[in-house]
Amino acid sequence: MLNDGTLRIIDVNFNRSKEGLRVIEDIFRFILINDVLRRKTRKIRHSLDGVLEKKLVRKAILNRNSKKDIGKKFDHLEAKRVDCQAILYANFQRVKESLRVLEEFFKLSKSKGSSKIKTIRYEIYNLEKKAFKLLFQ
């Protein structure tokens, strides 16, 4: 059974991973101009929507408590980005971390979400390697 805190964890990490993937996708689209990686990222981003059942999404959103979130204050470490590579790296880390959290907390539900998230996480590892090969060739 998923309690309010667990639902908030799922909500925030689902949002975090989708947002990070969008940043990565836009870097592939507008800066690296690599449509293969852009399409792969977009596919992964959209596949996350298929992992969360609509009923669970609704519950998670209804349990959202952004106003009282003690972790929403601006982190000065996040303000330090020196270039596009740093943004790309930071967002890959954000996506991987949030997917790992989702993977763990989906183990509490009766869905097959945990194994699907794990598959997506490994796709991100491969995508990250391709991106950094492209950047440093």
* Low-confidence sequence ranges: none
User: Which percent range describes the beta-strand content?
Assistant: under 5%
Radius of gyration: 16 Å
Number of strand segments:
0
What separation lies between the terminal Cα atoms?
48 Å
The helix content, as a percent range, equals over 70%
Count of DSSP helices? 5
How would you characterize the largest beta sheet?
A: none
- The SSE string, one letter per element, is HHHHH
Backbone structural class: mainly alpha
User: What does the overall shape look like?
Assistant: globular
Average pLDDT, all residues? 89
Question: Please, how many domains?
Answer: 1
List keywords for this structure.
mainly alpha; 5 helices; 137 residues; globular
Structural write-up:
The protein has one domain (4-65, 79-135). It is built from 5 helices and no strands. The model has no long low-confidence stretch (mean pLDDT 89). The protein is globular and about 50 Å long. The termini are far apart. Helix 2 (35-51) packs antiparallel against helix 5 and helix 4 packs antiparallel against helix 5. The protein has helices at 4-31, 35-51, 54-62, 84-106, 113-135. The chain has 137 residues and is mainly α.
